[in-house]
Structure formats: structure tokens, C-alpha cells
């Protein structure tokens, strides 16, 4: 039957080759696991279901191997080579041993073993050790009480608040399985533009019901906080307060009690995520307090409970002459060293807002005393929603692999995040989820790969993007080698193609106002200057681009001298970042030998043409793919092709009004 994408990468159809099945089967005679730990039981049952499907034969779960050989042994021990959630896969005699220092480590090992089988890797003489590099690997859902998802493009929320806590949708469990298979161990279930309702007893009970489903998969639940909740949430015998001032003892008491209420229902509650004094959300600054005052108040309210406060750095002010690029840096670096040890500051990968390409946020490396978490966006807010194919792993890696130089060469963003550069105790990576109620979870079939890649990179940021893509294709779409290669190549080129037909050469923030879809570089009438797109590209008769050097906003000065050097000279700035930092004359000759105007046109035209290439590549894959998945992607590619031309024509015509130059041969102006 056709594949509707529901099973994601957890497809356990029988391996087509009988010899291969028989080979694996020799090591899968049984699964031995002792004890009743729920996470260990999950590991055993996932392995059992997976292997039975893949090998086409029953695999019994037994209490102890007791001298039997030819099976899989799951075991929790104390292995100095492993951290708390790491795992080891090892051949021991005729058995395969999956061991870890915790039950969740065993669960991750079980999924790793399944991945070996799904991708056709050998399990003979197995010796794999893997430790997660980051402790909190989480999804952030921007899901609202009414079932909508802010910037969600795959249907409505997975959480049916109106049915919870009584009815448990079976999909919650499948969601947990998918995450656990990647090593994701936390989920923030509600939008950072948070409703105070999540602090009511009614909603805490609903969230507790979700936590009960996720717990056996090693996943902890977190909540986004409406900072002034103390002013709106009433409870029996607990009236709302007049204030949300974090230094007011009554407010502090209110939160301490709220925390206890939450932990009474959710004993392994993960903690709070906070967006405050950002885009109109209230926060501690409303009381003349700092972000640190606000975050520390919540951290102290957590008391001895094992939870954290994740405070977002996404802030900016609507001022005409302030460069939004600098805002988070300016508000947060003075607070370094002032945060409670339970606080983590969560920073978007770039300084503006999940644009198609951004230089890394200058906060990375600039707060050595404050654990900084990475916030990536999986949902394609600025990357064509669920209609454009953009594989995001190369974009995530581009940021993680960049050298901040703060402690000499090799001080990559990844080392800031994994704690190795500054010795952070807490480490975290978050992905803003792209999931929804669509049958295939992510709307675009290929969007599943972004969820997958995020989870794999949160576990180990050194994994290569193409390797992750290949794995995902094999597990999700096809095992046919030629098709695996072609689709992997297509995915690897997809982001750069998208950049070219939307925002080439470092252009940014020129998309449709409000909706964030399609082109609108002409917007100069938004209510706030920092929302006007003309503010970001600054096109005029001389040239285009935002001067962020010393003669401009000087945002470049927020980086180390070595980084500044890479980006300060328009002659030597790598082309992908050029217009992020420089206002470049239209007739300036670039390293390609073409003028800026000609290069811009070349990018827009070849970018749009490349979507045709993507369509052709995809069409050739038809025999290797499930018809439903093939059609889904083919249809979306057709939309993408049309819209790439929309972007190209809109931008070339718009910028052409300033450049007043002809479109270079062989391209033609749109009719
Ligand atoms: O990217 C912008 C989005 C907002 C979002 C905000 C944020 C949740 O357009 O929808 O709000 O960022 O990250 O807080």
C-alpha cells in the first residue's frame, strides 16, 4: 500500500534481500533485558518491533540471556567511556550488547542498532561508542491553546488540549518514538508567545498527561512562560497578584508555589522557556528590572527541583537608527556572570531572525560565564514554508562550524554550545519544530529530514550533513543506491538554490511582510522602522546592502578582530556575506569578474533555473520511490518552480529600478 509518510524514518518493512535478513537474524535470536524500568522496557519493545519487521520473524524478549547466544543483551552499567546518555554497541561472543550508564542511554543504543540494520550496515564485530555532545536536546513548539501553530505549516497542533487529559491521542506516543530515535530528550509544548493558561491547574493536568506519555521515551516536558502570569492566573485560595515584579516577595512566593504545583503533577518537569520584553511580550524590564532579575527569580523558584530556566535572547527595539543586529548583544553581554546557575540563555543562530543565511550571532563566545543554548528553526518560516525543498543541515552546520576565535583559532560556535570552550555545566540545543497534524507530520515530505537532521546534530554536531541526508533517505524514501545518491545530492544543493533565487549575496529580510512568504523588498511603510525591508537592503542609486562596518552601524565590531577581518573589506568579504556588511556599488566588480548588478541577476536567474533541475532530478527517481511520496514532492516542486520565478522577477525588477542597468545576457527581463 502507498506510503503516506506517517511512519517517518521508523519504517520497519522487511529488508528485501533474504540473505541479508538471515545474516542479521543470526544476531537477533532474542532480546534480553532485566528489570521493569519503563525506559528499558521501551528500548526492548522498540527493538523487538523494529527487528521483527525488518527481519520478518519473531524476536522474543526474555528476562536474561542466561548462557544463550545469538541474541541482543540490553544492559545498564557504569562505563567510564560513556556519559549519562551515551551508549556502546559491542559484539561479545555471539551476542550483541547494547550498554549504557542509564536506561535512556540503552534506548538510544537500541535505536542506533536499528539504524545499522535499516541502512544495511554490518553488525559483525560491532564496536560503536557514542556520547551526546549536548545535554538538553529539545524541540520548541510554537503551539497555541486554540490549536494553531505560530509559523507552523503542517496543519494544526499535535496537542488536542480540548481532549486532554482524559483522551490520549495515540499520535503522542508516535511523536515520542520519533524523537527518542534521534536522542531528543525534551520538548517545550507551548508557544514562546505564551498563554498564561498553561500556568492554571486545568492546563498543568493536560501537560502532565502528555508528560506521562513521553516519560518512557526519556523525554521531559517544559513549558513556555507568560512572564506576568502572577497577575492573571487565579486559583482556589490563590488570587492573582497586582504585580509581576521579579523582586517583589509576593511574586517570588507565587512562583515558588506554582513550581511546586507543577512538580506535584509532573515530577520530572524540565523547566521554563521564556520570551520576555521581546516583540511586545511583557517582562522584567516593565518593572525596571533586567533579564537576569527575571530569569533568576524563576530559577530560584525552581529551588531544589531538577529543572532549568531557558531565557531567550531574541530581543530588539523599534528604533530608527539602532541596528537590530546589535540588540541582543547589547542587552545580554552586560549580564554575563549575573545569571543563576540554573539559567541558560537561548540564542538564535544569527543576529536577526532565521534568515536564509546569517552570520553567526555575535553573542556566541561573548558570554563565557553564561551557558548559551543554540536555537535553530526547523519550521521554514523564511525558507518557503512547506512548499519549498530546503534541507537545513548544511545551514545548521555552517553556523556550528564557524570559528568565533574568542579563545584562539578553533573556537567554533559548536564548542561554545557543547560547553567545551567555556566549561559550561548546562548545554542545550533547541529546534523550533516543523511538526503538525498533517498525516506526514511536516507537510513537505522532505521537511522530515530537517527534524531528523536537527536531532542527529543535537546529539553530535560533528556528523556530516550529507551522511545524515543519506541515512534519512535510506530509512525514509528508498534503499536503491543510485536514488539514494541522487536525492542526497539534491538535498545538499537545495539550500543554496533557495538562497540564490530569494536572497543572494547576503541580502536578507526582504520577504512578504507579516506572512514571511514570497518577495516584498519594496516594503517601506511598516509601523516600525526595523520591520521595513528597505531598512535591511538599503538599495539606492549607488548600490545595495547594509553597511555594518565602522563607517556604518559598526555591528562588525561585536566580533573578534579575526572575524572582523574576514568581513570588513568589501573586496575580500566572501560573497555569501557581502551585503550583510557592505553597501556595495552596483558597478563594483566582484571576485567572479562580474559587476554586483550582473552577479545579482546571475544568481536570481540561475537559482530559479536550478529548480527546474531539481524537478528533473526528482522525476528520474520515480521508479525508486513510493508513488504517494513521489507525487507529494513532485507537486510541491512544481509550486516551488513557479514561485522561484516570482521571487526572481520581483527582486530583479525592484532592484533594477535603483541599478538602472540592463539585465545581462543571456537573461531577459520579465514581460
Ligand atoms: O521569527 C519571529 C517570528 C515570530 C516569533 C519570533 C520569536 C514566536 O516571526 O512569529 O514568535 O520570531 O522567535 O519569538
From TrEMBL:
Family: Belongs to the glycosyl hydrolase 67 family.
Domain Glycosyl hydrolase family 67 C-terminal, chain residue ranges per copy: 442-665
Catalysed reactions, as listed in the record: Hydrolysis of (1->2)-alpha-D-(4-O-methyl)glucuronosyl links in the main chain of hardwood xylans
SUPFAM superfamilies: (Trans)glycosidases (SSF51445), beta-N-acetylhexosaminidase-like domain (SSF55545)
Subunit annotation: Homodimer.
Domain Glycosyl hydrolase family 67 catalytic, chain residue ranges per copy: 117-441
Name of the molecule in the record: Xylan alpha-1,2-glucuronidase
Organism: Rudanella paleaurantiibacter
